[in-house]
Design a protein that fits this description.
Blueprint: H1 15-26, H2 29-61, H3 66-115, H4 118-123, H5 126-168, H6 170-177, H7 180-217, H8 219-225, H9 228-281, H10 286-298, H11 300-328, H12 337-353, E1 377-385, E2 394-402, E3 406-410, H13 417-424, E4 432-437, E5 440-441, H14 447-452, E6 454-457, H15 468-473, H16 481-490, H17 494-498, H18 517-530, E7 535-539, H19 547-560, E8 565-569, E9 581-586, E10 589-594, H20 596-602, H21 605-625
Parallel strand pairs: 3-8, 3-9, 6-7, 7-8
Antiparallel strand pairs: 1-2, 1-4, 4-5, 9-10
Helix pairs in contact: 1-11, 2-3, 2-5, 2-10, 3-5, 5-6, 5-11, 6-9, 7-9, 7-11, 9-10, 16-18, 18-19
The protein binds adenosine-5'-diphosphate (ADP) and magnesium ion.
Magnesium ion is lined by residues 417-418.
Length: 626
């Protein structure tokens, strides 16, 4: 059972980081301005209420009549109505901003994750990355929107109250303000402690849930091994941890609230005492005293709010760092500057010449952006490659493939077959040497162009939730229904699809769960074909499917590979017998190379593989035949 690494709590706020994160909010000025203004006005209104009270008290004290109270009542009424309106505005604005920011951050992260090359994912556990990021994005957007509002309102409120008090009576003001430093210190300290303890509780809780799961799932093992007592004592240990953390959290709240209330009343008490003396000596009115008492009690709320946000910002700093560092990661495999320039000039020229059709169809790219209309050859020239510096996977690998040829790669697992096709696809780039398309290093061509040429079918086909039709169309979004049916026919998928309850409109469920592996493979084959790629790659595409579907796929391959370059990796040698070249790959090198007949005649590794498999299949057939 692995739990996510402990979140660090940053005692220092990294202002530069938060300034960069805040740019996401600045993109929504249309909401941010009204939000700031409503926070400002709201704080002024909050600060004005004691003034209204002051006026009312003074009217009464100076022996005024009912008529004199009417403007005061009107002020009160006006303030209350504006308050309600502002609360409505800020909830809408902050909610909107938070929603937009979450969307923006997620979109940017998603975009970057898609741009990043495969080697990035080799280093990162993807599941963890994705779940982490979603939580991080939500957290940041909440802090940016609501935290911004609270900090704005809180600081304006404190300023407005301070200003008003200073104007009313500066000496009395200074006495009340003397309670601010302890109030701030206590709030910051306790908010931070409470956040940390809450986090600890969540962590213990997760551990307890996990151990419940384990305890129930592994109950048989536990019983057979006589581990009940041990497990129980472990569980009790966890419960104790949880209990003490919860008690601590409750204790912190129990101390914090009365403490700040005490400081608040201390302020009010000071105001009452010193202000009372002033009222008696006639320096201030009774109304001013009442206003001061009320201000002294009002400081707690904004300061508590700001302290809470500061704690949250410190707690979310790790999330911010993760998101920003992902966004700052530059893809290693990307179009070179020269290629980008070529594409730019090409596009602007196109835009002038034929503004209506700026996007060329896939496969018909003009040679100007680094692509050719046809791929006549692919060449590995002295390619050396390693995933990490430690171990070389390919050493000075050389190979030339011509249009119309099918290359089969066989050999022991871990030999480097998948690596070779990943290099062809430019999922990785050679460390040394070049891979040339029509004689030109593919790094001088655009990635878009290359990717438009590739049709890839992997061992475990990934299908999306949707209909058969939608899944095939994923390969080329503008394919017509007719074209999709043709592609399915060509790869021999049509018949089984027609037998599904709704034919091409059958929903196939998450990951294609309702289909067999072979059927899923047929669909992913059709999906690869619909883009009409010039290069086909099948990496163990027939490895985990039944022999019947395999025959269908083999039959489809014959038709589909015509006029293209294809790479086939397969265990069953029957699949590759008709290949133009068969390479036996072992330890990153070509051990044997030739056609099926040539290799059999050599009586080498291929011959052994073939004979062994033939014998096994023969035995299996003999067994089946009884
Ligand atoms: P094959 O497809 O012939 O089974 P691979 O090309 O997958 O072989 O692997 C060749 C070698 O490269 C193996 O030693 C394997 O461990 C290593 N390898 C493959 N993929 C990675 C990766 N993503 N990161 C690090 N090493 C890898
Ligand atoms: Mg492989």
């Amino acid at each position: 059972m692995t739990s996510p690494p402990e979140e660090e709590f940053h005692s220092k706020i990294d202002f530069d980081l938060w300034r960069r994160i805040f740019r996401f909010a600045l993109n929504h000025k249309r909401l941010l301005y009204p939000l700031s203004i409503s926070a400002l006005v709201l704080s002024l209104i909050d600060a004005a209420f004691p003034i209204a009270t002051m006026m009312a008290v003074d009217v009464v004290q100076t022996g005024g009549v009912t008529k004199d109270l009417i403007p005061v009542a009107a002020l009160f009424f006006g303030l209350s109505i504006s308050l309600a309106a502002l609360v409505y505005i800020f909830i809408r604005c902050a909610g909107g901003i938070s929603h937009h920011i979450a969307f923006d951050i997620k979109r940017d992260c998603f975009k970057r994750l898609q741009e990043l090359e495969f080697s990035f994912y080799d280093k990162q556990p993807t599941g963890w990355l994705i779940s982490r990021l979603t939580a991080d994005c939500d957290r940041l957007s909440r802090i940016l929107a609501w935290g911004f509002l609270d900090v704005m309102w809180g600081s304006f409120f404190v300023l407005a109250m301070t200003g008003t008090m200073l104007v009313l009576n500066w000496k009395l003001a200074l006495i009340v303000l003397a309670t601010l430093p302890p109030l701030i210190a206590v709030s910051v300290y306790f908010q931070r402690k409470m956040l940390l303890t809450s986090r600890l509780i969540r962590k213990h809780n997760a551990r307890i849930t996990a151990s419940y799961n384990e305890g129930i799932a592994g109950v048989k093992t536990t019983k057979t091994l006589g581990r009940e007592t041990k497990n129980l004592s472990e569980f009790e240990g966890m419960s104790t941890d949880m209990y003490s953390a919860s008690v601590r959290r409750a204790l912190l709240s129990a101390i914090y609230l009365p403490l700040v209330m005490l400081i608040g009343s201390l302020g009010s008490g000071l105001a009452l005492w010193y202000g009372g003396l002033n009222v008696l000596s006639g320096t201030i009115s009774l109304g001013v005293l009442v206003a001061f008492i009320s201000y002294a009690g009002n400081f707690f709320h904004p300061i508590n709010q700001i302290a809470q946000i500061l704690a949250e910002i410190q707690g979310a700093q790790a999330a911010g760092e993760r998101v920003m560092s992902l966004l700052a990661t530059q893809p290693k495999i990307k179009d070179s500057k020269e290629v980008l320039e070529k594409i730019a000039t090409h596009q602007s020229r196109n835009a002038v010449l034929q503004p209506a059709s700026r996007n060329p169809e896939p496969g018909t790219h003009d040679p100007v952006d680094g692509g050719d209309a046809h791929i006549d050859s692919i060449q590995f020239a002295d390619v050396t490659f390693s995933y990490n510096e430690k171990e070389q996977v390919l050493k000075r690998f050389n190979l030339t493939v011509k249009r119309g040829q099918t290359i089969a790669l066989v050999g022991p697992s871990g030999g480097g077959k998948s690596t070779i096709v990943s290099l062809v696809s430019r999922f990785y780039e050679p460390v040394k040497g070049e891979i040339r398309y029509n004689g030109i290093d593919y790094r001088q061509r655009s990635l878009d162009w290359l990717q438009a040429q590739l049709g890839i079918v992997l061992q475990t086909p990934h299908l999306f939730n949707g209909t058969v039709m939608e899944n095939i169309r994923y390969g080329r979004l503008d394919a017509t229904d007719e074209e999709i049916r043709e592609a399915a026919q060509l790869v021999n998928a049509h018949d089984f699809v027609m037998n599904l309850e709704n034919g091409y409109n059958t929903k196939i469920g998450e990951g294609g769960a309702r289909l067999s592996t072979g059927e899923r493979q047929l669909i992913s084959f059709a999906r690869a074909l619909i883009a009409d790629p010039q290069i086909f790659i099948m990496d163990e595409a027939t490895s985990s499917i039944d022999t019947e579907t395999e025959k269908l796929i083999q039959d489809g391959m014959q038709r589909v590979f015509d006029g293209r370059i294809s790479f086939v990796i397969a265990h069953r040698l029957s699949t590759i017998r008709s290949a133009d070249q068969i390479l036996v790959i072992s330890k990153g090198e070509i051990e044997e190379q030739g056609t099926h007949t040539e290799l059999l005649a050599q009586r080498g590794h291929y011959y052994d593989l073939y004979v062994n498999q033939f014998r096994r299949e023969g035995e299996a057939q003999a067994l089946e035949a009884g």
